[in-house]
């Protein structure tokens, strides 16, 4: 029997597409997987243990080795900078990080303020631009910040652009394109290399096939 693999799955948006990828790669995941409130799901047929984590926490579990593998958005990887390897771009849950704000407004020259759920990414971006900004960390509804006068700009995820439009905001700069990644703990990668490489191979086939269809 193969050695067990523990995989940290992000709850929420990415979950369904990630589960579809694994199923398309031929892994048998039970129906329970999709609508359970359990946080740990063992799939004995495949010798997998899934842990269902908040998306931002997935790299933390993988870095500490309590999960061998994980699926995380590139946004989370950039923000968290964890000591893990990125094995595959899964090309799912595509979106991008952008700077947005009220239309026809300039950045306050003295102390521009930026609201974001991604303080590290935002700080690095404005540093590279040579702008000194004050970052205000929010946990959601980021678009509120410029509307109610908390900040000049936001750095946030854009997908369809609907949230910006419906709140009267415009995009100023696109920072980076985002898709979800398969990540691995470096020690697990060494110790379970055969099992992990086989999984990567199977998932990669599906990713390639999906890209061809697109
Ligand atoms: N429109 C989008 N908004 C936010 N994240 C998106 C979007 N489209 C794709 N993603 C991807 O999904 C991930 C976030 O998933 P999700 O919204 O479920 O988590 P979350 O932001 O932690 O949610 P919450 O804090 O609302 O529980 C991001 O890391 C990103 O890679
Ligand atoms: O371009 P769109 O397709 O409109 O998607 C982008 C929006 O989706 C996300 O918010 P989410 O729904 O996760 O809510 P939150 O504000 O609570 O983070 C993100 O923070 C944007 O607000």
From TrEMBL:
HAMAP family: HisG_Short. It is an enzyme of class 2 (transferase). One of its GO terms (cellular component) is cytoplasm. It is found in: Cytoplasm. Pathway: Amino-acid biosynthesis; L-histidine biosynthesis; L-histidine from 5-phospho-alpha-D-ribose 1-diphosphate: step 1/9. This is ATP phosphoribosyltransferase. The gene is hisG. Heteromultimer composed of HisG and HisZ subunits. It comes from Niallia alba.
């Amino acid at each position: 029997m193969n050695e067990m693999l523990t995989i940290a799955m992000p709850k929420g948006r990415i979950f369904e597409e990630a589960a579809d990828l694994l199923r398309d790669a031929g892994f048998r995941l039970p129906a329970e997987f999709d609508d359970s409130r359990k946080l740990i799901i063992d799939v004995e047929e495949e010798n997998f243990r899934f842990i269902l984590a908040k998306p931002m926490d997935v790299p933390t579990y993988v870095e500490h080795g309590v999960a061998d593998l994980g699926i995380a958005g590139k946004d989370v990887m950039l923000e968290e900078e964890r000591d893990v390897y990125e094995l595959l771009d899964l090309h799912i849950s595509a979106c991008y990080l952008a700077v947005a704000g009220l239309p026809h407004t300039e950045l306050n020259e003295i102390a521009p303020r930026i609201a974001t759920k991604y303080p590290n990414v935002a700080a690095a971006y404005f540093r590279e631009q040579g702008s000194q900004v004050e970052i205000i960390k929010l946990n959601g509804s980021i678009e509120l910040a410029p509307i109610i006068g908390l900040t000049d700009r936001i750095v946030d995820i854009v997908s369809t652009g609907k949230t910006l439009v419906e709140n009267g905001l415009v995009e100023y700069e696109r920072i980076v394109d985002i898709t979800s990644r398969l990540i691995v703990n470096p020690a697990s990668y060494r110790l379970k290399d055969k099992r992990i490489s086989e999984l990567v191979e199977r998932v990669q086939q599906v990713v390639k096939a999906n890209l061809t269809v697109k």
